[in-house]
Amino acid sequence: QLQLVESGGGLVQPGGSLTLSCAASGRTFSSAAMGWFRQVPGTERECVAAIRWSWSGSASWHADSVTGRFTISRDNAKNTMYLQMNSLKPEDTAVYYCAAADLKARFLLTSHTAYDYWGQGTQVTVSS
Prior knowledge:
- By secondary structure, the protein is an all-beta fold.
- Strand 5 and strand 6 form a beta hairpin.
- It has no helices and 11 strands.
- The chain has strands at 2-7, 10-12, 18-26, 33-39, 46-54, 57-62, 70-75, 80-85, 94-101, 117-118, 122-126.
- Strands 2, 4, 5, 6, 9, 10 and 11 form a 7-stranded mixed sheet that branches. The protein has a 4-stranded antiparallel sheet with strand order 1-3-8-7, with no helix packed on it.
- The protein is globular.
């Protein structure tokens, strides 16, 4: 099993920045596809970014709503994934979750049904 723990959420003013971290332990982090999701109460969990990795390199995907503002990255040596969030807007307010799909590191996965493991979530609130 993979255990995932998010950190870095909080309250920030519009236009501000936050960096979320997802620390993984357990199974081999480098073999997992990874993604960041967010959820507002009463709505479906949506993927904001996903990243795949292989020995030939990595590739990422970002939702249209965050492209140019958010950047996903991973550090396999530290078993950690990040989400750098800039130019935050009130509509970015949500609980953010990191997710892992074991043994699928080569794939970019954007559906929540594709992921096996989830963190507990971290609240991001964008408000003045």
